[in-house]
Each structure stands twice: as structure tokens, then as C-alpha cells.
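Methods — Computational structure assignment.
A single polypeptide chain was analysed. Its primary sequence is given first, followed by the predicted tertiary structure written as C-alpha cells.
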Amino acid sequence: MRLFAEFCAFSYFPSLRAKKEQLKAAIQTFREELVATDTFLTRHGTDEGPFLFGNTFSLAESNAAPFLQRACIVLPGLTGQEMEVSVNPMDICDELGLIRLKQWIKAVLMRPSVVATGVPKVELVKRTKSMLERLAQMKENSQ
């Protein structure tokens, strides 16, 4: 679990907070982090199922699930509306041939416990947009 957390730390948030001139670099970093996660899953995971440890939903998946939900809902939901480019982790997986990562993301997001604890898509996008606006206002007020 510790190695997974160390090597598979991808963050969608910088892409949402990036100014126009920083967006391309933030998206490139996100893409590189997805590649690193796919590499880790391929090298250290098993082929006996979609999760890191085959058919066993582990602490790695438990920890990653909320971030995966948000990355796969919020990024496409906000980048396509608010920015010039749409960022969708699943499309990036297809584009870069990240087969193991896509399989893993789909399995985590379809897990009944993950589905049951998720926030509805529209509400998640709305709340995240509101939070980003508050963060921008706080930054502006502090300058």
C-alpha cells in the first residue's frame, strides 16, 4: 500500500486550478502521473483480476476511490465547460494505451461500495466549482 501511494499519486486538482498559461503543463503532469500509475499496476499488480491484488479490493483501491470518482467526473465536467480543452482520464487512458489503468479505474468505480458512497455527478461538479471559486476569491483577497 505504501509503495502504491508513493508511486501512484496523481492529482487532478492542479488542472482545475491552473491559469490559462499553466494549463498545458498541468495537464501534461497529470498525463505523466497516469502513465506512472499504469506502469506500477502492470509491474506490481497481478493479472488475476482488475484490482492491484487481482480480485481483492484492497486498501489501495479504498484510498484511491474518492479521487478516481472526482477525477473521472469533475475533470470532464469542468474542463469542457470552463476551459478551452476537455480533460477526461478515461480518454487519456485510451489515447496513451493505458490498458491496465483503465481496467483498474473502471473496476474501482463500479465496485458497489464505491458507487453507494459516491456523490451524484451534477452535485459533485457543482460543489467543486463552488469550492474553486471560493479558493480563487481567498487567493485574490490575500494579495
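Note: Residues 15 and 84 are 12 Å apart (CA to CA).
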